[in-house]
TrEMBL record:
<dbReference type="GO" id="GO:0003700">
    <property type="term" value="F:DNA-binding transcription factor activity"/>
</dbReference>
<feature type="domain" description="HTH marR-type">
    <location>
        <begin position="26"/>
        <end position="162"/>
    </location>
</feature>
<dbReference type="InterPro" id="IPR000835">
    <property type="entry name" value="HTH_MarR-typ"/>
</dbReference>
<dbReference type="InterPro" id="IPR036390">
    <property type="entry name" value="WH_DNA-bd_sf"/>
</dbReference>
<dbReference type="InterPro" id="IPR039422">
    <property type="entry name" value="MarR/SlyA-like"/>
</dbReference>
<protein>
    <submittedName>
        <fullName>MarR family transcriptional regulator</fullName>
    </submittedName>
</protein>
<dbReference type="GO" id="GO:0006950">
    <property type="term" value="P:response to stress"/>
</dbReference>
<dbReference type="InterPro" id="IPR036388">
    <property type="entry name" value="WH-like_DNA-bd_sf"/>
</dbReference>
Length: 178
């Protein structure tokens, strides 16, 4: 695996890095993190499609359900957690159900409520693909998270890497190059 900064020179500098715009340091840091996570997400898309034959948004639903008890989650809760419109989620659930990856059932006592759970097939596919998916994320993070992104995280969450009980200073984000 490549060293964390090995690929950083290949990446163009993010305009938010310069710090000469209108954004405060916190928003510049957030933009750096969004750019890095977007790049990781892009790398993951093709592996998700190849290994699971689902879209990235459908993959997010499967991951969310994989962390839940066998009973599943209500569709409204999934929409809230993923920040997706309920109408879009209904379409994605229909695709996942057609593929045999989720089940949908009415919630007892609530005729409008629908609960969704993973099928055994989905659990098996996720388990089989998890190694390749984890490797893709790790490799992409190594490529796209450099010193500037680490500095941004530390600036936004100043106590993140401190020992519990240690004194925390004020949040500061200083723009810096990779």
């Amino acid at each position: 695996m490549a060293a964390p900064d090995e690929h950083a020179p290949d990446l163009p500098e993010c305009p938010s890095m310069r710090g000469d715009g209108l954004l405060p340091a916190e928003l510049r840091a957030w933009m750096l993190l969004l750019a890095a996570t977007g790049a990781v997400e892009q790398e993951l898309r093709s592996v998700v499609k190849e290994r699971l034959d689902v879209s990235h948004d459908e993959f997010l639903i499967l991951c969310l359900l994989a962390e839940q008890p066998a009973a599943g989650l209500r569709m409204t809760r999934i929409a809230e957690l993923l920040g997706r419109p309920k109408t879009r989620l209904t379409y994605q659930m229909a695709c996942l159900q057609h593929a045999g990856l989720v089940t949908r059932k009415s919630v007892c006592g609530d005729k409008r409520g629908v609960e969704v759970a993973l099928t055994d097939k989905a659990r098996r596919l996720l388990q089989e693909a998890s190694g390749a998916l984890a490797e893709t994320v790790t490799t992409a993070l190594t490529r796209f998270v450099g010193p500037a992104q680490r500095e941004a995280v530390c600036g936004l969450l100043p106590g993140l890497f401190e020992e519990p009980g240690a004194q925390q200073g004020p949040a500061t984000v200083t723009p810096g190059g990779q």
